[in-house]
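[Automated response] Your request has been received and processed.

Submitted sequence:
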Amino acid sequence: MSSQAVPVQPESPAARGFLFAFFAYFIWGFLPLYMKMVAHIPALEVLAHRALWSVPLAGLALFFTGRPADIKRALKQPRTLAMAMLTASIISVNWGIYIWAIAVGRTVEAALGYYINPLFSIFLAALFLGETLKRMQILAISLAIVAVAILTWERGGLPWISVSLALSWGVYAMFKRSLPIGPSEGFFLEVLILSVPAAAYLIWLATTGTSHFFGEPGGANPWLLAASGLVTAFPLLLYANGAKLLKLSTIGMMQYIAPSMIFLIAVFWFREPFTGTTLFAFGFIWLALAVFTWSAFFSRKA
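Generated structure:
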């Protein structure tokens, strides 16, 4: 009696891409927990370590994928270097605001910023790239504006953390498209550029005796700060590989995983204030995202 072997189906690229992207968003969703552990350290120092420790990890990823030659070519092209300096500057602002927001207990506003981001990116594309806004997209953006207006009225001022995070990430993504290299190579080039001022600043802290990395021998600070490279580079590299294997509609729906997790952590773990008015404003945001996602899904299906 003979048995017939069952062929093993190879894992599809889409399935691998989904896993890469899911774990990237999952790590980003838990990032506030790490940021709380370094909240006693000035945001600028955490930012400097985040850039510096990302360089070796991003470099290793390039080495194993056989892409060092792309970086060598990019370093010889003034236009590519100038664009990378611009995107590096913008992403450092985004990182700095996010680090500070978590440290001072304004994680809810950070979550709102990343909820708004896809809507703001669509607005930027229409404003600067000449893309035409569909009716449902206009409705989604209008609902987001209403939400921001409600929060402005409640707090007596513009929720600048949310707006700044959405603005900086949206502009970063727009300029990032102009980099003539892949996302992994672009990330390495950005952190390589940022590592120069970061290293200078950290050396200055060490010489003045104000460094948290060297300030407490035997403490947890060195390990926590060194881990900043891992929590920065690893999810970005996962995302870069996942995005290449997935449809835009799939990535579009998955991008709400991280801000949803950040929101839940802020309200139920950090116990940040969350009033009925804030909930009302978030209702408009969630409605806007539902309209935006519905419109994007059916337009791409068509």
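Summary generated for your ticket: Residues 5-10 have pLDDT under 50 and may be disordered. The chain has one domain: 14-301.
If you did not submit this request, please reply to this message.
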